[in-house]
Amino acid sequence: MLSGNKKMIHYRENIYSLDNYERYITDSSLFENTGDGIIYTGPTRTIVPLITVVEPVVSNQHSVLIIPGGGYRRIVYEREGLDVGRWIAGQGYTAFILSYRMPSVNGYYSFADAKNALNFISYWAGMSERTFKSVGCMGFSAGGHLAGYITHLHYEEETSVRPDWMALIYPVISLDRSIAHQGCRKRLLDAGESEYSASLENSVTEYMPPVTLLCMQQMIRMFQLFIL
């Protein structure tokens, strides 16, 4: 429950494991944010991809997948995930916040988790008997790169779940050595991605959904206007 603009904003939060949609997790204290991803600190202490559903009491029948950043080495879960999801739920959207595994020499697990998250939204809507008019995808920093990458490939593959719009907030765009975030570049190349295919500027096609792109200066101005 959040308080803002002299009124109470109500929402419900539930955490699911993406390795098994039917596994229902309610105790967030069992999770620890580490450099490798979110670790389930129960008996198995394993890294699992998670999705937190923040559901408004009064829905506008639209949903958003939120992908926090963290340089592909950690997840900024609170500031770029949960806080954003709660605010969005206050506007009537159902928010799905992804906590993904980090890329490693064994593979680009983040991509697989983001793809699974889009499929989960369809599953959750059916399970909850909800119909969404649209599904958006919002990503911050490295999460913005992941949002753009997954949206592009979903459109190419013509899968059943494709974002209707994207919001990329101060995203990592390119892996070009001269302009890339070097940490993200190294981790993605180590995971087996190619510099060309993982650079979003090479993925723009006529089939892409509408995109809102915000850089840091624009964000600062928005916050100034909001505060004033």
From TrEMBL:
It comes from the Bacteria. GO terms for molecular function: hydrolase activity. Pfam families: BD-FAE. Residues 62-151 form the BD-FAE-like domain. The keyword Hydrolase applies. SUPFAM superfamilies: alpha/beta-Hydrolases. Gene3D superfamilies: alpha/beta hydrolase (3.40.50.1820). Keywords: Hydrolase. This is Peptidase S9.
